Amino acid sequence: MLTTSPHLHIRRPSPTTAEFTVTTRPQMTIPLRLLLALVFLTRLLLGTAVLLLLYSKWTQSPYATPLAVPPAHTPPPLLSTTTLLLNLKTLLATPLGLFLSNLASHTPVWALLPPCLAALYLCLHRVHTTESLLVLRGLGIQTSSTGGTVLTGTSTRFIPTEKICDVLINEAFRGFEVRYYLVVVVDGEEDLVVVFPRLLPGRKIVEAVWRGVRGCLCEGEKDGHEVKS
Amino acid sequence: MAPPSALQQSATQSDFDSPPPLVRSSTVPTSLASHHSHHRPDPSHLAPEDAFTSPPQRASAFEYASNGSGNELRPRRLRRKDGGSRSRSRRRKRFQKLLWVKQSYPDNYTDQATFLENLQRNPRVQPYDFWPLVADSTVIVQHVCSVICFVVCFAGIFLERVSPNTVVGLGSFSTVIGWLLWDSWGGEDSGDGADDGLARSRSGRSYRDRREFGPPRRQDSGLGGGASSSHPNASTTSISSVTSANSSTLLLPRHAHSTSVTSLNSATSQTSTNGRRGPNSPSPDSSLKHRASSPLRNSRLNLRLATIKSAVLIYSTLLGLSPILKSLTRSTSSDSIWAMSFWLLAINIFFFDYSTDINPRKSAPVASLSTNAALMASTVLASRLPSTGQVFSLTLFSIEVFGLFPVFRRYARQRSWRYHVILTVLLVLGAGGGVGMILGSGWKTGLAGMVIGCLVSALAMGGCSWWLIGLQKYKNEIYGPWDPARPIIISRRGWDDE
Amino acid sequence: MPDKTRRTYNIAMVSDFFFPQPGGVESHIYQLSSKLMDRGHKVIIITHAYDGRTGIRYLTNGIKVYHVPFLVIYRSSTFPTVFSFFPMFRNIVLRERIEIVHGHASLSSLCHEAILHGRTMGLRTVFTDHSLFGFADAASILTNKLLKFTLSDVDHVICVSHTCKENTVLRASLDPLMVSVIPNAVVAENFRPLSYEPPSKTSTTYNTAHKPNNQASFIHPNPPPPRLHLGPHDTITIVVISRLFYNKGTDLLTAAIPRILENHPNTRFIIAGSGPKAIDLEQMIEQNVLQDRVEMLGPVRHEEVRDVMVRGHIYLHPSLTEAFGTVIVEAASCGLYVVCTQVGGIPEVLPSHMTVFARPEEDDLVAATGRAIAALRAGKVRTELFHEQVKSMYSWTNVAQRTERVYNGICGDISEGEFYGYEAANYPGGNSWSAIRGRSGVQSFALIDRLKRYYGCGIWAGKLFCLCVIIDYLIFVFLEIWFPKNKIDICPDWPRKVLKEKDPRDGVR
């Protein structure tokens, strides 16, 4: 519902430029936006709760140093760890905080940690994957791929034209299936550069991108070739 | 194109003279039982003869299938009506089992006349007869009984019913008697062998002839008393140079693998062989032509001396080892010892070399496992005994029973059937009586044990033989041209004497 | 497509044995596949990954090879996991739109698995047996049981010789009618005699192979080559090319060579090949001081075999078991007179004027070689004609044609009456026997029918096999749900060749 199977967007801002984007992001509609916002909120809450839980577990552990409570009449500066810790303490005093610290005190570490980490991963996991290939005639190719989590950014790679030996479609065994994938053969490199490495879209998309790339990179050459691998 | 008739003939007449019954096989493996040549069990199965049966038979088969078996029937798909007539018109030339001929038959055509014509079922199986089978089973009975005798002796010593000196005295006495007997037989035999070889060499036949037609006897093998029985070189060291050269070339070609080197040596250097073989040979440069009987006698004397020497050696070694053996398994509980010795003796019985051939070179590779297991069993049993003398006598007795006695039994059987039977009866009586006496208390139970032992062994021999004969009907060996051929190589490594 | 009546298939050849490994099965698969491609079919080959050969590759004329990553245990056979190949196999089959699964070699577990899964997926299956097995030893019993399992539910079996057919029928309890005999072939162009000028280039391979069969087999477009004369003092060279193993009869060879050389002064031997028995041969040479008359070449590559063969006049083949014996056909094609032991399928392979047969005995082998030498010296044998004759006897095009007939038969494109050889015309509208029988035309794919076929394999084995089949079916259902068909990309086909054939007769005999 939130994602679709990978589909292709082609943007051609100028005749010499083409951007092929493969994404799992569906068309944005109002209900979908609302839903996404809801998901975002839920994840925020869940993340906070998990962090609080871990913090309360930490305070209960023997390694934690007791919080040195400063005199009440001199409030600490706003941006300091002491403020943060004090705020956390007040948070733990709320009913939710009490419940969490209760939970933390009753659960051993080995049972608490894996679910917490899993929940954190769930919160940080990117909903949509978007990978794109930007072709600039005369300059080169730039591949980009969004990271798996919110924290990791988009990884991009630019390959100048003179380093590109070929762009082709290949087949390979992957898990229990055979997949088509688009590769760029780079001069002087042992490994091929796989385009759309995370999504590995199906043959239709790959073929369309391949034709587009060939058409854009080497203008004038007819791009009606049979798929070679 | 050359007529293939010659080939066909040579293929069909190859070596199977009686065409075996056609084996009908079908896709449904339940009908595998139909290897027995009864009538077609299920008409819906296809037999090779169905490939070109006449319509009436096919019709009846079809009726049967549609009436009785209730199998799933479906309409025959006829795409091309002319297919049948065309294929019929094609079938004019005779089908040939050849690949290079372009035949007017489809590839999956199965010719009834030639399909599986070279199949042989159970070609080398001769049906067992009851009494010979029983007679052969005496070998096993003998061995089992001797193992029982050993166990009984141990039990007697352990329970202190029997003095160990009696046991070892009796055992040693019988061993000496047996050795003397064997020695006299061996003397007669090797005398024969020498005469035989002499006669042959005088008659001027070539070496190769002798190798081909010579009797496959290895009478003069190494029963060199105590230790030499397990020593494979005993045969060559113990016998006169002449006989050993002769006998090693008198081998059958089928076990030529192991002896090729010896036969090679003997053949290449006929005159100098004798020097290389047998270091204790007294006349190293006596050629084959001069076969005096004196070196033979000399070697017999040597052999006896060597035997006595090894016997003394073993005796003293055991004497020295006994105190160590006594304390060998002190830290182990008796239960483990009993279980262990039971399994070791079982291994001994199951892996014993029951073949009647007295050629020690051909003995099964597991035969040494059997002997070793028995000796280990006796060692661990002996270590349960309290005094050094007991340990010594039991170990010595076990060597006599497991090391020497089997060789003697084999020779006795080879020598005379009567000896063999007498030995068997004695062993059965001894084992039965011994068990009876150990379990009971006196001569009466011993007698009862003898009777029971006789009965049980007779029943076992008869019953097992009968059972084995009954099992023969399940035998289904299949031979055919697909089996790897056994090459017949006569002059293996014999090229150098041409 | 050239015409309506001829149908082309998508075929997957499955075997553990394929290039880069050399061998008979490997070249059989390759040659058959390329000739089937020539006939307009689509052929892919599925094998396991070799060192340096992984992934998916194309061979010269568009044969696609899938080197499936699998664990190799013994002599390039994969580990027999009954089900682990299924997901991958299903993916390949669906993306290539395979209709017929054709397995090769009974020692290949990949092939057995493919046949089992292929039947589960509702494909037609063919199995080609290349080897002979006994019935006595434990390994054979196990292999035979496995073979029975796979072949309980196969559509058709192809054997390379009549002996092999008998053996397979017995081993797997098959109906003889569902076993076809289609021999191997040789690429005659690669095995030409030394002094051979090719006939006029106008006749293509198709035309020579598609000659109407009623015609005389030996057609000489140009006058026959001149007779070769061997005087009584010319040296006759005897060639032996085989792996030096026990079952190739190296012991016989070792025993026979000194006697042959002694009886015939102007002879010499060339021995090519390697193996554990090579040391025996070398010993024999040294013992008899035959270094100048016996030449040991060591291992030669398949491409060089012809160059070795044409150095000789007689080819000696002392094998103890052989399903077909391609090498003697190659030797005859090179114009060598063949002396061979009469074992396995060898007596069926060559006509008697090209061969001298011997029993697998030393004396007889020596005598037969003596006869062959005498015949050559007397000029009785026209070895220079052998090449043309062999060329007309064995061609891969013919093999492909006959294999295509098998495909037609199992797919129901020719009537079962025609395919199985009974007179269908005599029963207008009559029902044939039951479909469970397997060999009546097209086999039923219903699970219950398949189970019935497997159940009869034995008291315990039958139940075990049924269990395997049921599990296989469950895996199939699971895969259908988990990896739905429409998510699998369909491969584009290699442009198919159009068969230029005058009369597309389906039953080429």
UniProtKB/TrEMBL annotation, chain A:
GO cellular component labels: glycosylphosphatidylinositol-N-acetylglucosaminyltransferase (GPI-GnT) complex
Any one Pfam family match given in the protein's UniProt record, by short name: PIG-H
UniProt-listed GO biological process terms: GPI anchor biosynthetic process
UniProt pathway: Glycolipid biosynthesis; glycosylphosphatidylinositol-anchor biosynthesis
Domain Phosphatidylinositol N-acetylglucosaminyltransferase subunit H conserved: 132-197
Record field: transmembrane: 34-55
Top-rank lineage group of the source organism: Eukaryota
InterPro entries: PIG-H, PIGH-H_dom
Keywords: Membrane, Transmembrane, Transmembrane helix
Family membership noted in the UniProt record: Belongs to the PIGH family.
Protein name, UniProt field: Phosphatidylinositol N-acetylglucosaminyltransferase subunit H conserved domain-containing protein
The organism of origin for this protein: Coniochaeta ligniaria NRRL 30616
From TrEMBL, chain B:
UniProt keyword GTP-binding present: no
UniProt subcellular location: Membrane
Regions of compositional bias (Polar residues) in chain numbering: 1-16, 24-33, 258-275
Ranges of Basic and acidic residues composition bias in the record: 206-220
Top-rank taxon: Eukaryota
Transmembrane segments: 301-325, 337-354, 391-408, 420-440, 446-469
Gene Ontology terms: biological process: GPI anchor biosynthetic process
Pfam families: GPI2 (PF06432)
Disordered: region residues: 1-91, 190-240, 258-294
InterPro entries in UniProt: Plno_GlcNAc_GPI2 (IPR009450)
UniProt KW keywords: GPI-anchor biosynthesis, Membrane, Transmembrane, Transmembrane helix
Signal peptide: none
One GO term describing the cellular component: glycosylphosphatidylinositol-N-acetylglucosaminyltransferase (GPI-GnT) complex
Protein family: Belongs to the PIGC family.
Name of the protein: GPI2-domain-containing protein
Organism name: Coniochaeta ligniaria NRRL 30616
From TrEMBL, chain C:
Keywords: Glycosyltransferase, GPI-anchor biosynthesis, Membrane, Transferase, Transmembrane, Transmembrane helix
Family annotation (CDD domains): GT4_PIG-A-like (cd03796)
Gene3D superfamilies linked: Glycogen Phosphorylase B
Transmembrane feature ranges: 460-479
Any Gene Ontology CC annotation: glycosylphosphatidylinositol-N-acetylglucosaminyltransferase (GPI-GnT) complex
Annotated metabolic or biological route of this protein: Glycolipid biosynthesis; glycosylphosphatidylinositol-anchor biosynthesis
Domain Glycosyl transferase family as annotated: residue spans: 233-368
Gene Ontology molecular function terms on file: phosphatidylinositol N-acetylglucosaminyltransferase activity
Enzyme superclass (EC): transferase
GO biological process: GPI anchor biosynthetic process
Record domain PIGA GPI anchor biosynthesis: where: 48-137
Origin superkingdom: Eukaryota
EC numbers on record: 2.4.1.198
InterPro entries: Glyco_trans_1, PIG-A/GPI3, PIGA_GPI_anchor_biosynthesis
Function (record text): Catalytic subunit in the complex catalyzing the transfer of N-acetylglucosamine from UDP-N-acetylglucosamine to phosphatidylinositol, the first step of GPI biosynthesis.
Name of the protein: Phosphatidylinositol N-acetylglucosaminyltransferase GPI3 subunit
Originating species: Coniochaeta ligniaria NRRL 30616
Lineage: Eukaryota, Fungi, Dikarya, Ascomycota, Pezizomycotina
